[in-house]
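Extended Data, panel c. Modelled sequence:
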Amino acid sequence: MTQDWTRRGVLGASLAVSALPMIARAQAVPLSTLPAAPFVVAETTAGKVRGGTTRGALSFKGIPYGGSVSGANRFKAAPPVEAWTGVRDATHLGAPAPQTPHSTYGEQEPDWAEDCLYLNVWTPALDGKKRPVLVYMHGGGYSTGSAGSPTQDGGRMAAAHDVVVVAPNHRLGLLGFLYLGDALGPEYANASMHDMVMALRWVRDNIAQFGGDPGNVTIFGESGGGAKVGTLMGMPEAKGLFHKAGIQSGAQLKRMPKEAAVETTHRLMKGLNLTDPRKLFEVPVRTLLDLQWQGEKDQGPLSGPAGPKVFESFAESTLAGHFGPVIDGTSLPVDPFDPVVTGLCADIPLLIANNKEEAAFFVMGQPGVFDMSEAELEGRLRHDYGGKGPALLKTYRQLRPGATPGDLYIAILTAATMGNETAVLAARKSAQSAPVYRYRWDYASNRPIAGTKHTLGSGHATDIGPTFDNWDEAGLHGNGPGVRDASAYLSAFWASFARTGVPSAPGAPVWPRYDTQRRPVMLVDTTCTVADDPDGAARPIWER
């Protein structure tokens, strides 16, 4: 069915969603994300799975969606999942992808394993109802993370908003993005992205058995997860597997050129003293990880000549010696969003966001930033932005009256790393037929920053728990006044967008679609307001 994106169609959908009850929001739910009784059995194309109940919804964890990706299956698209007999237990998380220690946070989450293609499903009921489906791609850049974190558990969101939530693990880092396409064939490119496409195919083929609608699928993600969503929007093989998209703090405009990916492979082969790329199938995983981790520090055989400092988000993932999606010409034909947005996603509505104080997260380990002097601020801005520094400082002082030097530095760094690209992507996508909606997460977390008297505020990733209405779980969002109200708004916006393509929430103002005349942005906090072009006064400086 073709969606009506006219004013009449949008307003009708918005009114319908505003009338939806906030199911189970007032009910207390257990904090544990471990599935417990009552247990239920669901059917998949590969066999039956047994799940339980968590956070008010039915929960199935660790469902395999792809076959083995180790040994001879490394670095390429995964084979199909092998069928099983009997009923498979789906009450425990599956293994996350190989990565740095202490970078996954799931409850009773197993150690990483090379074979990591598992997903989780949360649903209100196995009743054949066609609910909207939200598929969440986890963050952690392109090298860490998993679908198991309690703050992104989908149970409460599923129960409160009558939706189905899915979250897959997938390959990461070197094992997920090493490019061998020129040497071994086109299937040896963007393995991690192929995993996500395979997870979406699983949704298409199975989600009806979990009370979801395969014809109404929204993909969304935060940080690296948002950047992965952006890549899927430019992949021909993903076309038709999702119908709406959401990017939170992940508006990556450029992906890795093939030339840089080829150079990365050359450095790796040389560092391992190999000439036959098939020998990479035999290298121990830990050896490959050690080389990847050295490269992330610009050390070891993957490192190269140091270039100029770049502030744009995900910039390192486009450079030789690092790992991220590759514009290989086949699985990813062109940059999805640069210089224009690919026509593959012209019919895909987009909900896009960044956080007001995004950069506070990235300087948490530098307590001096929060208490810097005026002289230190001016010096940093001259160093980082050259001739733009004085103009930026003057403009942001006007935009943030009363802000401390540390606050101003974080505001400017936020624009440089996340805010500007969010605005550019929203503007470019708004030229297409499907609507774009943009918001900014303004709720200030009370989570303290070590070594200072400051808190994280609306820093990067403070919106993850609230997205899933998991305000009561421990996380970066903190436990301050109003966190529950801000979470109610944010989770309702995402659920309504998934249902109709129009974000709305009880008590929030009508949300205009984004355009380059008004540039309307919903400011999400304990109350919500629409602001036209916030921080727009700085745009001419950034564009110089």
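The domain at 31-348 is CATH 3.40.50.1820 (Rossmann fold). This feature is highlighted in the accompanying rendering.
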